From TrEMBL:
InterPro entries: DprA (IPR003488), DrpA_SLOG (IPR057666). The gene is dprA. Residues 11-217 form the Smf/DprA SLOG domain. GO terms for biological process: DNA-mediated transformation. SUPFAM superfamilies: MCP/YpsA-like (SSF102405). NCBIfam families: dprA (TIGR00732). Residues 289-312 are annotated as: Disordered. This is DNA-protecting protein DprA. Residues 302-312 have a biased composition (Gly residues). Belongs to the DprA/Smf family. It comes from the Bacteria.
Length: 312
C-alpha cells in the first residue's frame, strides 16, 4: 500500500477476506490512499453511519462514540459524507485513533468538496478507499454500492440518526444479512431523524449508547461494558429484613409496632429491634407510642408513601 497521497490498487495480499462474504457482489479490487494495512484494520473495525442533515445531538453522539471506539483500539469506518459520517471521522481523528473513509468515487476525488481537508487528514492518519478507479465521480447508484462495502468490511454497523428512507438503513440491513452486528443509537421519540433508527431497534438491531456497549457486542470475551446503576443510597445498604420493616411503615402518620409487625409479616419484638436500628440511621422517629417516617430521608429527599405496603 502506498503512503500519504500515493494511490494503489489493492487485490492481494492485503485483501480483507470478509468482503468475500458479498459473493458475486464482491468488489473486484480496492483503490487505497493512506498508511495502514487494510486487512489487519478491517478485523477490528466498526462502521458509524447516519444522517447527513443530522442534529447537534446526532453529531455529538457520533463524535463521542467514534472517539471512544478509537481510544479502545477500534477502527472507525464511515463514508466521509456531511453530518454523522464527518462527525465520526473527526471523533476518531481527534482522539489520535484510526479511521477509514469508504468513498463512492475515486479516492483522488474530494467528495463532498467541503471535506477536502478532512479527507486529507484521514489519508494521513488512516485510510481512504473505494472500488472505483481514480477520476471516477459519484452517482446515486454508486452510493448504494459503497454501502455494501462498509457493511461487509466491518464487524458491525452503528446507525446514529436516520430517517425511514435513509441510506444508512440500507447499510445496516445489508450488515444484518451478512451476519454482522447491527446497532442503533436511540433519539427523541418525536424526531423524524431517529424514526429509522427506532425501526431498526424494534427489529434485530441492538440499542447502544456509548463505545463500551458497542465493544461489548463486537469485541472478544471479557470486553464487557461497565455495570450501569444509579447512585448508592443509604436505604440500598439496609439488609432485607430491616428494609421490609421500613417499607411496612405508613406514610404521613405514626404506627404502633404491632401494626408494623402485621404489615411486615414478622414478630413484634423483631420489629422493635429493627425500628430502633432505623431510628439510629435517621429513617424513623418516635411519635408517642408509635413510630413514623422522618420528614427528610437520610439521602436528603422527602419521604413519601408512594410504594409502601403498610398504612391501609
Amino acid at each position: 500500500m502506498g503512503r500519504g497521497n500515493t494511490l494503489q490498487l489493492d487485490t492481494e495480499p492485503q485483501w480483507p477476506t470478509q468482503l468475500d462474504d458479498l459473493g458475486d457482489a464482491r468488489p473486484i479490487g480496492l483503490w487505497l490512499r493512506g498508511r495502514p494495512d487494510l486487512r489487519t484494520w478491517a478485523l477490528r473495525s466498526v462502521a458509524v453511519v447516519g444522517a447527513r442533515a443530522c442534529t447537534p445531538y446526532g453529531a455529538h453522539m457520533a463524535q463521542t462514540l467514534a472517539a471512544g471506539l478509537a481510544e479502545r483500539g477500534w477502527v472507525v469506518v464511515s463514508g466521509a459524507a456531511y453530518g454523522v459520517d464527518g462527525a465520526a471521522h473527526r471523533g476518531a481523528l481527534a482522539s489520535g485513533g484510526a479511521t477509514a473513509a469508504v468513498l463512492a468515487c475515486g479516492v483522488d476525488i474530494a467528495y463532498p468538496r467541503g471535506h477536502t481537508e478532512l479527507l486529507g487528514r484521514i489519508a494521513g492518519q488512516g485510510i481512504v478507499l473505494g472500488e472505483l478507479p481514480p477520476g471516477s465521480h459519484p452517482t446515486p447508484s454508486r452510493f448504494v454500492l459503497r454501502n455494501r462495502v462498509i457493511a461487509a468490511l466491518t464487524r458491525g454497523t452503528v446507525v446514529v440518526e436516520a430517517a425511514h428512507r435513509s441510506g444508512s438503513l440500507v447499510t445496516a440491513r445489508r450488515a444484518q444479512r451478512l451476519g454482522r452486528f447491527t446497532m442503533g443509537v436511540p433519539g427523541p421519540a418525536t424526531s423524524g431523524l431517529s424514526g429509522g433508527v427506532h425501526e431498526l431497534l424494534r427489529g434485530e438491531a441492538v440499542l447502544v449508547t456509548d463505545a463500551a456497549e458497542v465493544v461489548e457486542l463486537v469485541g472478544g470475551m471479557g470486553e464487557l461494558a461497565p455495570e450501569r446503576r444509579g447512585p448508592v443510597f443509604a436505604r440500598d445498604l439496609l439488609d432485607r429484613d430491616t428494609l421490609r420493616v421500613l417499607e411496612a411503615l405508613p406514610a404521613g402518620r405514626p404506627a404502633h409496632a404491632d401494626d408494623v409487625a402485621l404489615a411486615a409479616g414478622t414478630g413484634t419484638d423483631e420489629v422493635i429491634g429493627r425500628l430502633y436500628e432505623l431510628h439510629s440511621l435517621g429513617f424513623v422517629e418516635r411519635q408517642g407510642e408509635g413510630w413514623q417516617l422522618t420528614t427528610q430521608s437520610p439521602e436528603g429527599g422527602t419521604q413519601t408513601g408512594g410504594a409502601r405496603r403498610g398504612g391501609h
